[in-house]
## 1
Amino acid sequence: MELYIDTANVEKIEQYCAQYPLAGFTCNPTIVTKENRTVEELVNLVPGKRVFVQAIAEDYEGILADARKLRSMRDDIYVKIPCTPDGYRAMYTLKQEGFGILATAVYTVGQALMSAACGADYVAPYVNRMSDTEVDGCELVEDIVCAFASQKIETKVIAASFKNLNQVVRLLVAGAEAVTIPLDLFEKLINNKLTNDATKVFADQWEAHFNRRAI
Ligand code: E4P
C-alpha cells in the first residue's frame, strides 16, 4: 500500500512526509498555482520519497520537453501525463527513455488499459470527478483493478480525487495499490475524535489515581 498526499503545501509536505509513512506527494497544475508555488520549489522537498508533477503542454513534442525539463530537476521524478492521444504517444516514447510515468485524468477502464500498454507505472482514476458525471467512481476503479489482475498488468492503480475517506478505504480494500488524498482527508485519517476522546479519558483516570499523565 502506498499513501500519498495530493498537495503543493510545502510546510505540510515536509512535515507529514517526515512524521508519517507517506510514500511521497502528488500535485497538479491547479494545486500548484493555488499554493502560488513553482515546480522548482517542490521537486526536491522530500528526497527518497516519490514526487509526481504534471506536464503542462498538450502536444506530443511539448509533453516530451516538459518531461525532460522535470527530469533535469530531479532524475527519479514521476511525470504525470493526461490520457489524450498525444499523451499516450508521449508515454510510449518516454517509457522507452526510462521515465517514471503516471497516466492521469483517467475516466474509463479503456484509458487505464491503454496507459498500461504505453508503459505507465501508475494510472490515476479520478474517483470524485467521475461520480460528478453520474458514473460510480469507486466501481470504475474496482473494474480497473480487476482488468489489470486478469491481464497480469503490473501498472499500479493510484486512486485520486476523493471527497471522503469511505471512498479511499473502499478502494484500498478493492486492491488499488495506492491512493493520493488531499490534506484535509489525510488529517481526518489520522485524527479520529472518538479515539482522541477515549485516549483523554484514559489519561484523566490515570492522573486521578497516580497524579501524573505518564507511565
Ligand atoms: C491527482 O492526480 C488529481 O490531480 C487530483 O486528485 C484531482 O483531485 P480533485 O478532483 O479533487 O481536483
## 2
Amino acid sequence: MPMGTVPKLILVTGALGQIGTELVEALQDKYGKESVIPTDVREANGCTQLDVMDAEGIENLVRSKGITDIYHLAALLSATGEKNPDLCWSVNVDGLVNVISAAKKYGCRVFSPSSIAVFGPDCPKHAPQVTGLNPTTVYGKTKVVGEHLAMSSGIDMRGLRYPGLISWKAPAGGGTTDYAVEIFHAALSEGHYNCFVREDTRLPMMYMDDAIRATLELMDTPFDSLGTSRGGYNIAGCSFTAGELVKSIQRHIPEFTCSFEPDVRQNYADSWPDSIEDDVARKEWGWISKFDLDKIVDEMIDNLQ
Ligand code: NAD
Ligand code: AKB
C-alpha cells in the first residue's frame, strides 16, 4: 500500500444474499479477509448481525470499527417487495437513508446497487441510460429514489443498474429474474422446470462474475471521471428469452423439458426493457461484459454438476 494511504475497512450489508455471498469473497481477495465486515439481518457464522433499519446500530458499527467504505446490499427484491410493499419501502429507502447518514457523518464511500427495475413500460425496449424512470413496482420506485439519493447525498456514492443476475453459489433472493437461476437447479435435479414467465419473455441478464467485476471496477474509478449517471449506471450483460435459455441448457441436457405457467411476476417482467444500452459506463469507466448466454450456461452447468 502506498505511504500515506488509509487502509480500507469495508462494511457489507445484506452480505448473506445472492450478490453478497460472492462480493464478500471478492473484496476479501482484493483487500484482505480482515478488511471486510460482512453483516446481515439473518444470523450466520462469520457474519455480524445488523438490521439496516437500525440507524443507531449502523452508526455504532461504522464509528467503532472505523469503516471507510460501505457496500449496501440489504434490500427486498421485486417479487417479495410487491407482496410486502410497506416493508420493501422501509428496508430499501429508510435502510439506505440510515446508511447514507452514517456514511456522511464518518466520511465513508458508498456502493448501493440500482436495478433494471427503475425502468417502466414507457421506456424504449432497448433502455438508454437517460430516459424517464416510471417503474410500476414498489421495488423499482425504491431504486429510483436510491439513485436520486446517491446524487443528492453530498458523498462519494455510486451504483449500477444490475440486470437479472445468474449465479450458482447462493440462491436468488425473491426477484422476478429468479427463474433464470432456478431453472439450472431444476434441470439438473428434476430434468424439468415449470417457468413462471412466458417462453418469449426477454430480459437483460448478467453472469455474477461480470457483476462483481463491474462493481469493483466502478469503485476503483476516480470520482472525477464519473458523470451524472453515477447513481445508477446501465450495464449490459446479455439479453435472451426464457425459451432461448431452455435451448441453451438443452445443449448439455437434451432430455430437459420446460413448461411455462406465467404468474404475477410476468407483469413485472413485461414492465421492464428487453436489453440495456451501456454506452455511458463503457465511456466513463471502461465497462465491457465477458459472458454471453451460452458461456453463462456452460459455467452454471459445470459448477452445479
Ligand atoms: P438477496 O435477496 O439475495 O440478498 C439481500 C440480503 O439482504 C439478504 O441476505 C437478506 O437477509 C438481507 N436483508 C433483508 N432485509 C434486511 C435488513 N433489514 N437489514 C439487513 N439485511 C437485510 O438480494 P441480492 O440479489 O443479493 O441483491 C443485493 C442488491 O442488489 C439489492 O439492492 C438488489 O436490489 C440489487 N439487485 C440485485 C439483482 C439480482 O438479480 N440479484 C439485480 C438488480 C439489483
Ligand atoms: C429482481 O428480479 O427483482 C432483481 C432485479 C432485476 O432487480 N433480480
